[in-house]
Structure formats: structure tokens, C-alpha cells
Amino acid sequence: MKRVLVAGATGYLGSYITRELVARGVKTRILVSDKKRIILKDENLNIREGDPSQIESLAGILKDVDTVISTVALIPVKGNKQTYMDVDFQANVNLLEEAKKNGVKKFIYVSTFGADKLRNVKMCAAREKFVDYLKDSGLEYLVVRPTAFFPEMENYLTMAVGGRVFIYGNGERRSNPIDGKDLAKVIVDSADEDIQEVEAGGPDILTQNEMAEMAFRTFGKPVKIFHLPNLLRVLVLGAARIFAKKRNYGTIEYFMTIMMMDMEAPAYGELHLEDYYHERVH
In this structure, how many other beta carbons lie within 10 angstroms of the beta carbon of residue 111? Predict the structure, then answer.
């Protein structure tokens, strides 16, 4: 891996991957929608503007690149009418096809832990459809499947500051969320290895109850956890399917599904969720 293009470089994980590559002296090109958003400056960093969902904007951007790392995924924000299939699938297909035209050797794609078993969930369906496309592309590939990121665990902090945390079920489902900085190292370390898939979580395997207790400790508040019946979760998900805005439903569907699953991946990294909580609060 000598010349890398990072797509999705202004996102949470993409920004960490970019910093990790630059820190290692790798010639790094990043694809962004607006150059003005990039603060990082380095002689090994080349910034190009383009939109993966608009294939014509990719012309020439992958020239002289040997590896593509894509974290391109839908961000459901107000005004964005794109779907998971538009972004998580088609935008990545556009990148892949342009990569093939330009002689790119390897394509690294960041999916989601467990997505291959959740093809009935809209977000996972789009990502796994692209994984299938990638595997049939003829390029060398690496599919990375991380567990949840630390910022996605802030819902426990949000509830704890109010004095109560609500959890569906008994709260004993286990997972090991990972920090973006740790995952970036995993991806860059794995890029030149002869492997095709990596599942990655953080160093601490925690139950939902333990994460809630951690959030209360962060605020110095007494632990008050309320366990809700799974039937209520099913009803809320059904109501969201009918009443939630289309751009929001996919995210709700995904998190409401995985909260009743163990999401424990092989452990990597050295950054801890409790330290992250304290950094966010203090």
C-alpha cells in the first residue's frame, strides 16, 4: 500500500484513517465534498473534491492509486433524500468501477459487525449487497466489520444525566464498542495482509447494564436502570415504521434490532469507553 484514496474522509472513521495513514508517511488522497472542511495539512496529503454518488465527479480521482479505503455510508440528515441503496450500495459501486478503470489493486470497505446476518435490515441489506458486488469484482478486497463506535454509546450518557436509564430486556446483552482511532489502526495494519475479512471490537466486553452503570459513575449519580419488556420494543419499532420520517427509520430499525443481540467481536485497541465518557462529560 503506497498510494491510498480514502473515501468518506470527513466522517468519524474516515478522518481517523486519514490521520493514521498520514502519520505513517503513506501517500494519501482523500475524496471530500468540500475542501474547506479539511484542516489537516501534510506533504503526503492530497485533497480532491467529488461525490461518489455522482459517478461523473470521480473522473481522474483514482489515477495512480493502488488502494481504496471506503467508509462511504448514508448520513440521515434533514434534506437528504438519498436512501441506503443510493449511498451504501450505489455510491460504493461507483467508486469500485472507477477503481477498476484506473488499475487499483485493492478495495477496502467498512461494513458493520453482524450485517451479513441482518440482511432484512435496510442499512445492512445495502452494505451487504455491496460486499457481494465487491467479492465478485475481481479486485483484491478487505471487508472490515466493526462493532458500534464510542459516540454511538452516548445514549447512555444522555439518559444517565436525567437520572434514569431505560433498557429493553434484561440488559445482559454483551458488546465491545470500539474507538475510531483504534479501528483506523486495525484497518491500516490489515491493509497489506493476505486476509479478506476482519471483525473488530474494542478491548472491553460489556453488558448493557455495565455501560449504563458506567454512565452513572461518570456523573456521580446513583444507578437507576429500568428494564422494559421486549414486546414494547417490537411495538415501538412497528410504530416507527409507520410514523418516523423515512430518513430516520433506517437508523432506528438498526439500533432497535441489535440491542437484543450480543455484538461481541474480536478485541482490538487500547482505548476504553469509560475514559471516553469522562472526556465527553468533564
Answer: 24
Arithmetic mean of pLDDT, 227-243: 94
Nearest to 184 by CA among 163, 200, 195, 169: 200
Sign (positive/negative) of CA torsion 202, 174, 168, 281? negative
8 Å CB contact between 119 and 128: yes
Question: What DSSP element (H or E) covers 227?
Answer: strand 225-228
The model carries a pTM of: 0.95
* Residue 142, C-alpha cell as written in the block: 478487505
35 burial type by CB count under 10 A (0-12 exposed, 13-18 middle, 19+ buried): exposed
Rounded-to-integer distance, Cα 6 and Cα 27, Å: 11
Return the SS3 of 62: coil
Q: Check whether 79 has a pLDDT greater than 80.
A: no
Map residue 248 onto helix, strand or coil.
helix
- Give, as one character, the DSSP assignment of residue 141: E
Please, which residues bridge with residue 27 across strands? 3
DSSP reduced 3-state for 166 = strand
> Using CA of residue 199, residue 52, residue 73, residue 10, what is the dihedral sign?
positive
